[in-house]
């Protein structure tokens, strides 16, 4: 039984798939994807077909974190909607198989853009990919959660109030030292919480370009990935998450667009992206957008702090990168405070 995040007990996985996955035939090989910090993910290769296995990391985990069972459920529910997702094959909640819960899904044979600049692509391609991101996001927020069986996928009440409370607890549980700006941001978000406007939709929770798979020779999205933070909540959290990512520095670390001449690359501005989203959803506009942006900076800081703490505890999927990420927590807190001042 595998007890680390870097490898799999292939014999155990092979035996389980032979028994439970229709059409599966070995022999089996596995390669761990280097991207992703939360749930270790592996490419499973067989002579006939490739699959993807995503698992909880073993060991003691924060409550409600690494919810691969929720990932499986939401993607299966979206199978017949306009939101592209990979096909879900099976969920195994028996920890005795490989040491933690895992699920197996379709391997999407496409391309992934790690950075929003999409270096080397034509301006027309960049513009089309951004518009596809916008379309899929709007479609996600127009999914009828009752119709797809997800009405109970998140509790009722003010989503932002609930999320601020949840991530404050997660942050405190993984805190490794006092960060004054983070404390100030938590206080400010609670103070400036907007009134609930009644919008209640499915939200992804980490919507960005590198969590999407696109056609190899086109710009259509084949599937949105990494649904661990999905829930029933407020759609502006997802929209602001996209804008938050773009405020980061460009390059492999920040993966943002700060300082980039977007027009010269065919990329939409923040305002254009928001306006197109509102048009697709029939909205007149969005008030208090700075709050939603600040919320995302806060949540990402809390997530990164958790990743950093797991690295210190020896339980991170990618320990070296996790320790580097931990250095960005104060920066995210500062960006959050700045966003509230918009």
From TrEMBL:
Domain Aminoglycoside phosphotransferase per the UniProt entry, residue ranges: 31-253
Identify the domain of life: Bacteria
Q: Which Pfam families match?
A: APH
Q: What is this protein called?
A: Phosphotransferase family protein
Q: What is the lineage of its organism?
A: Bacteria, Pseudomonadati, Pseudomonadota, Alphaproteobacteria, Rhodobacterales
């Amino acid at each position: 039984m595998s007890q680390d995040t870097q490898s799999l007990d292939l014999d155990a996985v092979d035996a389980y798939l032979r028994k439970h996955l229709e059409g599966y035939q070995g022999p089996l090989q596995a390669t761990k994807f280097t991207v992703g910090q939360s749930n270790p993910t592996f490419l499973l290769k067989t002579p006939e077909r490739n699959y993807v296995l995503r698992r909880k990391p073993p060991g003691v985990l924060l409550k409600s974190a690494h919810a691969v069972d929720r990932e499986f459920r939401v993607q299966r529910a979206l199978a017949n909607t306009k939101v592209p997702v990979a096909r879900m094959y099976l969920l195994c909640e028996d920890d005795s198989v490989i040491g933690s819960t895992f699920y197996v899904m379709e391997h999407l044979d496409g391309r992934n853009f790690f950075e929003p600049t999409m270096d080397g692509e034509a301006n027309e391609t960049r513009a089309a990919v951004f518009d596809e991101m916008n379309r899929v996001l709007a479609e996600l927020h127009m999914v009828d959660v009752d119709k797809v069986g997800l009405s109970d996928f998140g509790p009722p009440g003010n989503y932002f109030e609930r999320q601020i409370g949840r991530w404050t607890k997660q942050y405190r549980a993984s805190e490794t030292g006092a960060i004054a700006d983070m404390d100030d941001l938590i206080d400010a978000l609670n103070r400036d919480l907007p009134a609930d406007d009644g919008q209640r939709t499915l939200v992804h929770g980490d919507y960005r370009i590198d969590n999407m798979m696109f056609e190899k020779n086109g710009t259509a999205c084949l599937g949105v990935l990494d649904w661990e933070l999905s829930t029933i909540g407020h759609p502006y959290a997802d929209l602001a998450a996209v804008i938050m990512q773009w405020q980061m520095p460009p390059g492999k670390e920040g993966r943002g667009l700060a300082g980039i001449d977007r027009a010269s690359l065919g990329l939409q501005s923040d305002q254009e992206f928001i306006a197109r989203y509102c048009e697709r959803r029939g909205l007149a506009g969005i008030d208090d957008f700075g709050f939603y942006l600040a919320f995302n900076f806060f949540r990402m800081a809390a997530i990164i702090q958790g990743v950093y703490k797991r690295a210190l505890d020896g339980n991170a999927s990618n320990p070296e990168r996790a320790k580097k990420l931990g250095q960005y927590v104060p920066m995210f807190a500062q960006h959050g405070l700045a966003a509230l001042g918009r």
